[in-house]
Amino acid sequence: MSAEPHPRHRLDEVVHQPVRFSIVATLAASADAEFSFVRDTVQVSDSVLSKQVAVLEGAGYIHVTKGYVGKRPRTWLRLTDAGRAAFTAHLEALRAIAGT
Amino acid sequence: MTAPLPTPHEAAGLVATADRLEAAVRGAAGWRYIAWLTGMSVATLQYGAALGVAGTDDRSGLVLSAAFGACVALLSLTLLPGARVNRPGFGARWARAVVTWGLLFAAMMVLGLLVFRGELGFWLPAAVLSALPLALGARAESRA
Fold it and tell me: What is the pTM of this model?
């Protein structure tokens, strides 16, 4: 008899942390987003966002691009394919746990 | 997994959070591009139709062209630089609308000025056709 594995096995350790979950959920709905947009949407400080972005970038889940709009420096965040796949699986697991 | 497992209630809350964030992105993304595409579509339609009405009057043609150029500059400088987020697939939708418009607009200008100069019967449908990709692009972006 082979039981269906519990959905908790599909939860992603990196994405599960609350702030990182919100960052990745925001980026999952975007092609790319400016750092300040993610900061305002997730409602965290620059330093908190920078720290969590570094973790996600280290895991290969997001890609960071720095550039300029006019003379103003801008940082753009984009979910990688691996990050999008991890978030999709994580969200499916959450839906299974929630029973929705 | 070392982090505490979410209860069904917490998991439902996280799913709701993801839905809320997606809605926030949807609300914030695209409006600048939708406005640019719509504005450019209207400007293209008016410019083409006005060139047809102007006929062979060079002075009117120059004034209309300067006004069209000013519209393009104004729309581009005020709307395009400030976008902070884009929806998935935006690049392809944007390229499809702008490249198609560019080709049709170039064809309208070349044929209109070299072959059909002063013929309203050419300029009016050509203006509508040239404006269409931008209008369709605005609609696609608003539905993304």
Answer: 0.74
